[in-house]
Design a protein that fits this description.
The chain is of the alpha/beta class and 846 residues long.
Length: 846
Amino acid sequence: MDNNSEFGIKFWSLTKEEVFKLVSGGEDGLNDEQVAQRLEKYGANSLRETSQKTSFLLFLSQFKSPITILLIVAALLSLFLGDVVNTIIILIILCISSILSFWQENAAVNAAKELLKMVHLNCTILRNRQKRDVPIENVVPGDIIYLTAGDIIPGDSKIIESQELFVDEAAFTGETYPVEKTCGILPLDTPLSQRSNTLLMGAHIISGKATAIVVKTGRQTEFGKIAAGLLQRAPETDFERGIRKFSYLLMEITLLLILTIFAINVFLHRDVLDSLLFSLALAVGLTPQLLPTIISVNLSAGAKRMATKKVIVKRLSSIENMGSMDILCSDKSGTVTEGHVNLKDTLDSAGVHSEKVLEYAWLNASMQQGFRNPIDESICKAWHGVNTGFAVISEIPYDFIRKRLTIQVAREGENLVITKGALTVMVSICSQVERKDGTLLSMKESQPAILQQYEQFSRLGFRTLGLAYKRLNVGEPFTKAEENDMIFLGFILLFDPPKENVSVLIGQLNKLGVRLKIITGDNALVANSLAIEIGIVDPKIVTGAQLQKMSNAALLHEAPLVDIFAEVEPNQKERIVLNLKKAGHVVGFVGDGINDASALHAADVGISVDTAVDVAREAADIVLLSKGLDVLTEGIIEGRKTFANTMKYIFMATSANFGNMFSMAGASIFLNFLPLLPKQILLTNLLTDLPEMTISLDKVDDFVIKSPQHWDLNFIKRFMIFFGLLSSVFDYITFGILLNVLHADEKQFQTGWFIESVISASLIVLVVRTPLPFFKSLPGRYLAIATGFIVLFVLVFPFTHIAFWMGFEKLSIGYYGWMLLVILGYIMSAELLKKWFYRKVMNKYY
């Protein structure tokens, strides 16, 4: 029974006690035994299928290609017609190929699972009468959860207690601004958008805090009801789109070739079954059947290498985007700066150090119960005074609209309200200014001097907050509406020094073709000071106010030219990212805050850190275990290596394989026998695939790493035409030598052609893998070993007993000499063609 049928009651209309009864829970929460029972009953708290594809099913999926299925059917048909040996050999080769592909893909899947375990979301719940952090997947109906700013809500819940609680429910209501939530009872017919006493799975806390009882989890939540739309595949990346188009191109050529060759062979009155098997075997040789596996293995290997650099990949396809990225948007804190906010000083309204300002700032920072932030921590560290005896009465948490935090504190005979926040905002809610001697001046009279000091502090690079207070009668309550007519007390000066090597790292990014753009909420003067300090000459700065007045067309033109976006509102970050993408750039965005989620979603590569709030980590594609440009630089390099190694397989598939299969197709027309039997074609394909499985570990040329890599189908088409034709030319030279010089019979022809075909296809990978001359860019150790092994195996294979079953026979030394000459000629010609191709056709020089 699912929890939808059990908890179908509209719980927003129930009292707290009725909800506890509904979910068989209580104020003490659940114990481990109850949790285990409910997890078994309702399943993990996830919107995705919890059952993973077994290894057996993964193995079976290796045979899902329509061409492979047709080949198996044709081989079985051959069995019924009496050709048992041929059938067994074909099926064995297909199984070996599938086992190798399964082994690689299974390793890639397991590696990805292990990496994802390093980045998981937790929530705070009451278990066994104690607060503890548990993975969100383990939350069950009846759990009592504790939420604060930045938390993702783990299940549909009824609020038990709340304080100044604001929640982002845009995914459900489309409402841009956060909605306020309180405990209470609502009518049965209250629509979703007005259920102010409930929290919905997938939404997240903007500000305030809450205690709630979970009623529904997983697919039975409101989020689960729309999961079919929300859990569709992520938007196709440029690389994925290119792979798809490339696969379609080869499939079209393959199908055309199959139908043509099959028709011609039947027309020439050759055996229909042999002609069908031959055509299907050609299709297997032509189809990039290893491409999905090669991509998975390359991406998985890249992810494992990136993990050693403290970069955890959540979405494997984002690795390619990391390599293609040419603009990186980031907040300055922790990336450009040390990320440790330090308190410089606390000053009165005249700019003189004040212990009173420090004490009041400490009261505000130490007693707030919302989201813990570096500013409050730095203020608390700076306070070395004694306990002043104040106790917190109420709190109005910080939010991104008010831009301030208010605490009401009291002690015997005294009732104070203390507010700190953005200085311009603080000035607007104050009517008086306190001087050092305690006398008060009007804000209207003092405002010019305060703003002038603020500008001066900002030019020096200090982030400056304002501090204000108000005295109330003892016992008098305070509400948000009364945040006015306060007394301005002074300034809080903060600084976050730039990292020592940041200028060098920015230079490295520039050398990699990636331009850093800083997006910050700090004012333009602070941002300008930082830019100059880290070596950005004459920085171009655009403020949030200027962005507000700028049309999308204007921003589309301006955004790529800007160095720093300052005084930016949270919703403007996404707009900046979207316009940079529209301008044709691949954009990365680094964010760790509550207000970064939308920009992380919008970016081509969303990057967060493991210490970020839940909503930022959930939105990110990549999570850094150590925030900084050095880690990002390593990630970009690994992304480019992964992209480059994937493209090497593409180049191989469009050169030797394509050329060889095209040559065999043509030869079958004028020969009175098949140039290779179907089982021999499959063996050729298997042997040429083996070295390519090591491509993920191959070396990558330095110049490839130095610039963003992009998919270019036109380049691949040209490459396929030139190098495919070259391969075919030498194939037909081989045919000519075998027939006219060596006077080979059918088996000798097939054996000689098999040797030349496999060795040339294996060795050509070493040529096409780099634009540089072979001797200037040697292959990686594993690729070299695998290639050497295949060459040796093919040379010896005709002398083995297995070769007899494959239809081969021993050849004289003369055959080997001629084949060696052809292979050497092919490799040397490919080197010359490569040099000409990159210089004359692609206008590239290496």
